[in-house]
Amino acid sequence: MEHVRWLAKPKLRRPMLIAAFTGWNDAGDAASNSVRHLVEAWHAQPLAEIDPEEFTDFATVRPHVRLTPEQKRTIVWPTVGFWSASTPGGDVILALGPEPALRWRLFTEQLVGIAQRFEVSMVLTLGALLADVPHTRPVQLIGTATENDIIERFDLQRSRYEGPTGIVGVLHDSCSKADLSSASLWAAVPAYASQVPSPKASLALVERACEMLGTPGPTAQLQTEAQEYDARVSTFVADDGDLMGYVARLESLADSGQLVDDDYFADVGDDEDEDDAVGGEAGEPSTEVVVADVNSEELMAEVERFLRDQHLNGEGSA
């Protein structure tokens, strides 16, 4: 763990490690905002950080300049940070930061080393993907693992995915080689609202993660934000007749059980182009799911233009 900078060394008892990475595995910022919310809600304390120098392409994920209260300039580097907290369900370590661009095997060695140091009970990763799902229905979640006892204990699926992967897949492979139990949760985010952060998906991930941890979820703020999200997305959908019809069709498919069931999640990525798909040992779906007979390239292009205009007008951000 030569690239880990320790900030504290608390005594933790078999904590669960919950991790999320910004970037490819984080549609609608849902996964990263889930962990960020837990850090704040649980008043988690800084534990460690991984030095980004070896793992980050700073031309892609740039550091930020900040001013101190004394008006001195300082650089904030894009690190992967770790926090610790105690909950009624047990101790927890929270990990959050950008997906590394370089030396993934060395990076996962650092993370696995932290997990081993504290004898974590399980590594749980959170992710989110773009899918043809309506924002007006409950968020579709899929949980996957490779160990039978974890699958049975938490009612998860066994991943059948094969194909290109992101850091989540590499991390789960490293956990497996280190005999660390691991699982993955994924939330589906509406593709037509891809540039709008989704607290609704974050809420679903937090609720399920806390259920697995065995602790009540701190969800009041996310519930309020999810209601505001539904209203906001419904407003811009209502301004476009074609988009209204598209969403209505998705609602019909969802209500009839034809949209994004567990088997569909488990199979995504099989026929995706390498540049568009990701996958992993613990079940990493592709970052964009397309439902047959529903997607219209022309309509989606129009939606993307609309969302881009919204973003430029300051009404939304990714």
Task: Tell me what the structure shows.
The strands form two sheets. The chain has a nine-stranded mixed beta sheet, sandwiched between helices. The chain has a single domain (4-312), classed as 3-Layer(aba) Sandwich (Rossmann fold). The chain is α/β, with parallel strands linked by helices and 318 residues long. It has helices spanning 30-41, 104-117, 148-154, 167-177, 199-213, 220-238, 241-255, 262-267, 297-312; strands at residues 4-6, 16-22, 45-50, 64-67, 73-76, 80-87, 90-98, 122-131, 141-145, 157-158, 182-190.
Topology:
Blueprint (H helix, E strand, L loop, with lengths): L3 E3 L9 E7 L7 H12 L3 E6 L13 E4 L5 E4 L3 E8 L2 E9 L5 H14 L4 E10 L9 E5 L2 H7 L2 E2 L8 H11 L4 E9 L8 H15 L6 H19 L2 H15 L6 H6 L29 H16 L6
Parallel strand pairs: 2-7, 2-8, 8-11, 9-10
Antiparallel strand pairs: 1-3, 3-6, 4-5, 6-7, 9-11
Helix pairs in contact: 1-5, 2-4, 5-6
List its traits.
single chain, 318 residues, alpha/beta, Rossmann fold, nine-stranded mixed β-sheet, two-stranded antiparallel sheet, 9 helices, 11 strands, globular
Question: How would you summarize this macromolecular structure in one to three sentences?
Answer:
By secondary structure, the protein is of the alpha/beta class. 36% of the residues lie in helices and 21% in strands. It has a single domain, classed as 3-Layer(aba) Sandwich (Rossmann fold), CATH 3.40.50.10900.
